[in-house]
Specification:
The complex is a heterodimer of chains A (478) and B (198). By secondary structure, chain A is α+β, with helices and mostly antiparallel strands. In chain A, strands 11-15-12-14-13-19 form a 6-stranded mixed β-barrel. In chain A, strands 17-16-18 form a 3-stranded mixed sheet, with helices on one face. In chain A, a hairpin with a 2-residue loop joins strand 5 and strand 6. The longest helix of chain A is centred in the first third of the chain and has 12 residues. Chain B has one domain: Alpha-Beta Plaits. Chain B has 198 residues and is an alpha+beta fold. The chains are: A alpha+beta (478), B alpha+beta (198). Chains A and B meet through helix 11 of A and helix 1 of B.
Chain lengths: 478, 198
Amino acid sequence: MLVIADPHPTTWASLAVEAGRKDGVYILPIATQFECTGSRVASNRSLQWGEQIVKPVFECKDDLEVIYRIAKKCGFADKMFKNIKVENNLPEAEDVLREMNRGSWSTGYCGQSPERLKAHMKNQAKFDFLTMRAPKDDPEVGGDYYGLPWPCWGSPEVKHPGTPLLYNTNLNVMDGGGTFRPRFGLEREEKLPDGTTRKVSLLADGSYSKDSEIKDGYPEFTLASLKKLGWDKDLTEAEMATITRVNSANPDAVSWSLDLSGGIQRVALIHGCVPYGNGKARMNAFGLPDPIPVHREPIYTPRVDLVAKYPTLPDAKQFRMPNIGFSVQKAAVEKGIAKQFPLILSSGRLVEYEGGGEETRTNPWLAELQQDMFIEISPGDAADRGIKDGGWVWVTGAENNSRAKMKALVTERVGKGVAWMPFHFGGWFAGKDLRGNYPKGTDPIVLGESANTITTYGYDPATGMQEPKVTLCQIAAA
Amino acid sequence: MARMKFLCDADRCIECNACVTACKNEHEVPWGINRRRVVTIDDGKPGERSVSMACMHCTDAPCAAVCPVNCIYTTADGVVLHSKDLCIGCGYCFYACPFGAPQYPQIGNFGSRGKMDKCTFCAGGPEADGSKEEYEKYGANRLAEGKLPLCAEMCSTKSLLAGDGEVIAQIYKERVMKRGYGSGAWGWKTAYRETIES
């Protein structure tokens, strides 16, 4: 089953039709932010409360409504929306954020209640332009950083101001200060040159955030550690009852991230401590395949002579999937792929378009500025191939006989041996215009080949992230 | 009286085309007509420069001098405007303009031209300020509302300046003095000719 939920029908929709799929493909028109109410998070970790400006137009629906209806169809809406008010199939955005607050202790996504965010929107003018902070004496938003960037520790009542800069030991944690999180154990074994080993503490060494009552490193807070410090007396009866309910067999093991009352976080904060602990920064990422980064040739490299010395990591099963990068790299060298596809291909952004480009390619003011999918090629490489600036070319890729037709931009923006293309286009496949496959009236003004038609195999060994950024290709005049 | 001018600081322009997009959006300029455009020279080479160009609202505008129907006029603010009611689409102004500002919609086969369209410094046309007729022919009249052209107001690097010529010349002069390099800063080439490219 393929479900496409977007304000615009995406490339996938046109490809699914092209592939002849008749069943199991759903295109759900989704409302834009202007048609919905709710919290929005920006990449600086701060949140804003957005109001609905217009009712959803045409047949599009709010994300929340779509999720609710799917849950209802699957038969678990009553459980999923137990704590959320639903009216006319639309869950209330305030309740949705409260539900997140109640369950997101471990990421500090717990203090940003809808009430606090709405107060920020109402008092926007009071926040300082540079520090992002409101004056401490303001009755509604006093001392807060704009948008309560997470981590915003504790329950909303704790009034943590948010953390605009992470790990800043120059500030009290209640002013947005912090420490490194001891996330990789409390100690590790270190091999010494003479062959012996010793244990090294991974807690901070004499470093702590301002006003911390513990003047050294410390592990994450649990009920047991509060007891050891004598700080468990600061917990209220209600908090204690919740902690006991969370783990009745062993309440001592309940930590800051599991305590649904937020009490352990609150007590850590009043003693100037960060709930997750205070550890050392990790420059040697032990536990990762390359603890310290080393050079490894890309799977598809033009420098085949370097592969033997700098191969990619051995094949392995990662998470639930195999990663056969090594075999693919070896096969590419044996098959002489680099001779057949001698150009390095990279991809990137245009200022006019965003992401896959369906939305921005539908905007006439932007579409007019970039009307064709293109590939940048250096004057030398273009001359070798008889390619003219603005002429049509076929770009072929190293896997699956992939090919794409686009215009050439002959330019010195790229060096010899390198080609570049933007990744905002879609709606063409292997030279064919798929405009007819879009639902009537929804096709973007500008269509073009998708860069990912040409990209090839490759996954990050630690995160499984795919490698769509660089590969090899060949270009020929069409 | 103020004399309105545009000035594009080529040391700051990043070729983002926001001025072009803002102009099209504000005045609902149709596809194919560009009142403003960004020109890049030496693209991809060291010393690459971009500059945003539109009607420069010349003093003693050559377009007005060649217009056979006298439809081009200069306002009290020094803005060069024209009347689309009088324009016959002859194209003389296009040949006279050193900046390629006049644009013409194609209205038939064989390249026959419609009435000329160009940057109005967001000051509309001869019709009553802010009227429906004015908007339909020339786009928004921001100047009558006490606002400057949207292209310059939107410019993310404040490369494109618009306003009273005296004031923007002063701003640019201060910038050049503070930078102390490039853009004609006196002595720069003499002192650093061999090592620094401006």
